[in-house]
Design a protein that fits this description.
The protein has about 325 residues and is of the alpha/beta class. Among the domains are: about 110 residues, Ribonuclease H-like superfamily/Ribonuclease H (Nucleotidyltransferase, domain 5); about 30 residues, no CATH class. Helices cover about 30% and strands about 10% of the residues. It is built from 12 helices and 8 strands. The strands form 2 sheets. A 6-stranded mixed beta sheet has the order 1-4-3-2-5-6. A hairpin with a 6-residue loop joins strand 7 and strand 8. The radius of gyration is 21 Å and the shape is globular. It starts with 5 loop residues before the first strand and ends in an 11-residue tail after the last helix. It holds the Pfam family DNA_pol_A_exo1. Keywords: Exonuclease, Hydrolase, Nuclease. One of its GO terms (biological process) is nucleobase-containing compound metabolic process.
Length: about 325
């Protein structure tokens, strides 16, 4: 299948695209930019694909269009009758909200769909905890199992495609194993159980997570591959506390202790940072292609710079193997 797109870099091309975009009940959205979504970052391109036949892809050049032209684009993104489908839309929404005063509602985030369906696909607690390693120390997870039981590791888009065995003739971010389609029973990829009505509400909460402030580039408590708490599950706690790490207001059950007011996610991040500070870094082994033990500069030179994410976790290949697309950390 050939993938084609229309570049919208002037008023004429955009006007033609807007008619198609407004009539589509669903839009698939992705953005690119310089340090997209973080403080000091900027938006460059918005990719919009329609769900209505014939499906069309439009690339909106934010830098080339005038402010009045962009108002019409952002109005489409804010339209409550059009469902916007994204994969980890937190950075996209942060760029829209803080840079262009745009609020997306009626959202479905496929990264959230992936996490929410793991139990349906047979994932138990051991598998859930297993995903956390090596981002978190396996030894520490085993010794503090209760503190990690609420944590879910997020996957990159390419890893999600592979795990769900999605048929794809366009994806070029890495090989997708099609042999799994010979297995029985078939995976329930297209089961109606996958997407329930509550996921749209939770997706809005997820993508709008950083509406209070765009994350700083070195914010280790907000920029990490762990699902923030109270997105998929809303606690019944009446008492609430402000986490001193991620600065979110959360229920009592999201904290290991009230005497140390950090949520389970930030508590685990602290444990990781303390472990790295107390363990001397080994010498790099470039002859094997391994980045384990490389310092920040060496890792950036090896994998490519990715400034919108913090550098605190750039010491182990495993930290990024499920978070960034294959081929390095040059893109989200």
């Amino acid at each position: 299948m050939t993938s084609t797109f229309t570049l919208c870099a002037d008023s004429t091309s955009l006007a033609a695209a807007l008619d198609k975009l407004r009539s589509s009940p669903m839009l698939f959205v992705d953005c690119e930019g310089d340090r997209l979504g973080v403080a000091g970052g900027s938006l460059s391109l918005i990719s919009l694909r329609t769900s209505a036949t014939p499906r069309m892809t439009y690339i909106v050049d934010v830098l080339a269009l005038s402010s009045s032209d962009l108002i019409a684009v952002f109005a489409v993104l804010e339209h409550s009758s059009i469902c916007k489908v994204l994969f980890d839309g937190r950075m996209d929404h942060s760029a829209f909200f803080h840079g262009h005063s745009t609020v997306m509602n009626n959202v479905l985030d496929l990264q959230l769909v992936d996490v929410s369906t793991r139990l349906l696909r047979g994932e138990g607690m051991d598998n859930q905890l297993g995903r956390l390693s090596p981002f978190f120390s396996t030894t520490h997870i085993i010794a503090n199992r209760a503190n990690y039981s609420k944590l879910h590791r997020l996957l990159s888009l390419s890893k999600t495609i592979k795990e769900h065995k999605v048929r794809n003739s366009v994806w070029t971010g890495g090989l997708v194993d099609h042999n799994g389609w010979m297995d029985r029973p078939l995976p329930p990829v297209r089961s109606e159980r996958y997407i329930d009505p509550s996921l749209s509400v939770r997706s809005v909460k997820y993508v709008q997570l950083w509406s209070d402030a765009a994350p700083q580039p070195d914010d280790t408590y907000r920029l990490h591959p762990i699902l923030p708490l109270e997105i998929l599950h809303t606690p019944v706690d009446t008492a609430q506390f402000i986490c001193t790490g991620c600065r979110r207001t959360l229920g009592r059950s999201s904290f290991p202790t009230t005497s140390l007011p950090k949520c389970f996610v930030c508590f685990a991040i602290d444990a990781k940072l303390e472990s790295k500070q107390s363990t001397p870094l080994p010498q790099p082994a470039p002859e094997t292609g391994s980045s384990r033990g490389w310092d920040d500069i060496q890792y950036r030179e090896f994998c490519g710079d990715h400034p919108e994410w913090p550098t605190a976790y750039m010491y182990e290949t495993g930290d990024f193997s499920d978070w960034y697309p294959e081929g390095g950390i040059g893109q989200r």
